[in-house]
Write a structure and sequence with these properties.
Elements lengths: L1 H23 L23 H10 L4 E5 L3 E5 L2 H10 L11 H6 L13 H17 L5 H20 L9 H17 L9 H18 L2 H8 L9 H28 L11 H10 L8 H32 L1 H14 L15 H13 L9 E2 L4 E3 L2 E3 L4 E4 L1 H7 L24 H4 L18 H18 E5 L22 E5 L1
Parallel strand pairs: 2-6
Antiparallel strand pairs: 1-2, 3-6, 4-5, 7-8
Helix pairs in contact: 2-15, 6-7, 6-17, 7-12, 8-10, 9-10, 10-12, 12-17, 13-17
């Protein structure tokens, strides 16, 4: 009897393993997954980009990791382009996984970043239209950025102990004020921004927690676990709770903006304009939940990303004084010291443009691209990717490893400049094409226009006005903190007015 039972169990096990490998064989080949747990043992979630760097080098531009859900990685630029641009509509989805949709959003399928189908299309179109009405990519938005940059420079000027400055909050407030003003119509004063600091701290707490959590992976791989008592908290509930705390900021600010707003009046911020379009019945998809969701997405994506990039800039340029000096000389010779830069100065500032490109390449801040999902079975380079598969177009890997970037571990803006010293290297080497921190295709970053203005003006203004260097005896540490967003470790710098 026991022998029969044992035989039955072994047969069932062998059958399940065979079925498992039949299932994994449907995806592009990658490192061999173990039955049921896939490649989890191969994966360090705290330093995901390092795992992807290590595994990507052993593969041929496209492969699958089982985490344990199948997760297709694309590391080759031409394949990313083929997928996200040539076959863009087939890769346009975001995961519908319960944990991601319910715990990490304002509401499932609301807003822009995580929504799908017609709702995504309409939210994105409407958000970009409203932003354009407020001048995104035009002079009006540039004026808001310049004004916030001006306050930041003034704040740095007023710091008494310039030998020990943590640039984190000055940069964060400068960047957050821009999107806060666009969305909600007001700004914070440096030094008086407790609600903003609480938002950022709550967000960072959640990010730290995610990178540490096996529970999250289990919840995503086996959604039934999220329904169980206690286990449900570790696999889902704690993240939903953390996200709700973060979103209190959004709810409060949307309500604040709408309190005295009459839809007959001229809108003065994004919330007003969205509400007015709702009242005009401009679009069946416009409702309160999507208003909140879109504001939540733009606020989150709109400040943490550019802030982190500029925080890296402070450390990298402090570590490379010769590059900092060369940038400053260009700024002083084109603009002088008496006014802040304009975007119109950019064409005359080749070195500054190369510095921004190299900064975004070298200090790319997302450990993985935002996950996409295939909307149907799709063939890429002879490999079939089944419908509903998660895809990571690994822009981090690309910018850190593509052989076009000679010695990619070096910070060297000159790599983007032709030998004539007058042009960027687009034509000959396609380096700029491969520098894609905002991703590519129809779902690429919706805030690229604002981000580019913030990065150019933020970087050039800082070094126009200050020399930034390490404190004596405290060398710069460029090893990042672990996590989904690649953050610098907190460290203080010395700033000197020039
Ligand atoms: C250095 C700054 C930034 C970087 C590196 C960055 C990068 C990205 C990336 C890689 C994506 C995913 C694109 C894809 O799925 O292919 C994305 C999406 C997005 N970003 Fe950015 N971003 C930045 C700044 C901003 C800013 C300033 C805003 C808003 C003002 C913003 C709003 C968004 C939104 C709404 C999406 C979702 C787009 C969609 O799903 O349709 N981002 N960003």
């Amino acid at each position: 009897m026991f022998a029969v039972l044992l035989l039955g169990i072994v047969s069932l096990l062998i059958y399940s393993i065979v079925r498992y490998y039949q299932y994994t064989a449907k995806y592009p080949k990658g490192p061999l997954p173990l039955p049921f747990i896939g490649n989890l043992l191969d994966f360090d979630f705290k330093t995901q980009h390092k795992t992807f760097d290590r595994l990507g080098k052993q593969q041929k531009g496209i492969y699958t990791l089982f985490t344990p859900v199948p997760y297709v990685q694309i590391t080759d630029y031409q394949i990313i382009k083929e997928a996200f641009v040539d076959k863009g509509d087939d890769f346009i989805g975001r995961p519908t996984n319960k944990v991601l949709q319910e715990a990490f959003t304002f509401a499932p399928n609301a807003g822009v970043i995580n929504s799908n189908g017609d709702n995504w299309r309409e939210q994105r179109r409407m958000a970009i239209t409203i932003m354009r009405d407020f001048g995104m990519g035009k002079n009006l938005m540039e004026e808001q950025v310049r004004s916030s940059v001006g306050e930041y420079i003034e704040h740095l000027n007023n710091i008494e102990d310039k030998d020990n400055v943590d640039m984190r909050w000055p940069v964060q407030v400068m960047v957050a004020n821009i999107i806060n003003e666009v969305l909600f119509g007001y700004r914070y004063k440096h030094g008086d921004c407790a609600p903003l600091m609480k938002y950022v701290e709550d967000f960072n707490y959640m990010i730290d927690h995610i990178s540490d959590s096996k529970g999250l992976l289990l919840g995503m791989g086996f959604p039934f676990l999220t329904e169980l008592p206690i286990i449900g908290w570790y696999t889902y509930g704690q993240f939903k709770d953390a996200m709700a705390k973060i979103n209190e900021y959004i709810v409060h600010n949307v309500e604040r903006a709408l309190k005295d707003y009459n839809v007959e009046d001229e809108p003065t911020c994004f919330v007003h304009a969205y509400k007015q379009k709702m009242a005009q019945n401009a679009n069946a998809y416009l409702d309160q939940e999507n208003l909140m969701g879109t504001c939540a997405d733009f606020f989150l994506a709109g400040q943490e990303t550019t802030t982190t990039t500029l925080r890296w800039a402070m450390l990298i340029f402090a570590k490379h004084p010769e590059i900092q000096e060369k940038l400053r000389q260009e700024v002083h010779s084109v603009i002088g010291k008496d006014r802040l830069p304009f975007m119109a100065d950019q064409p005359k500032m080749l070195y500054a443009r190369a510095c921004v490109l190299e900064l975004q390449r070298f200090a790319n801040i997302l450990a993985t691209n935002v996950q996409r999902v295939t909307t149907k079975d799709v063939e890429i380079r002879g490999e079939i990717i089944p419908k509903d598969t998660w895809v990571n177009a690994d822009i981090h890997y690309l910018m850190a490893n593509d052989t076009m970037f000679e010695n990619p571990e070096e910070f060297r803006p000159e790599r983007y400049i032709c030998q004539d010293g007058k042009t960027l290297r687009k034509v000959r080497y396609d380096l700029i094409d491969r520098t894609i921190p905002f991703s590519i295709g129809k779902r690429m970053c919706a805030g690229e226009g604002i981000a580019r203005v913030e990065l150019f003006l933020g970087l050039t203004s800082t070094f126009q006005n200050f020399k930034i260097s390490p404190r004596p005896g405290h060398p710069i540490d460029l090893e990042p903190k672990t996590g989904q967003i690649i953050l610098p470790k907190p460290q203080q710098l010395r700033i000197q007015k020039v």
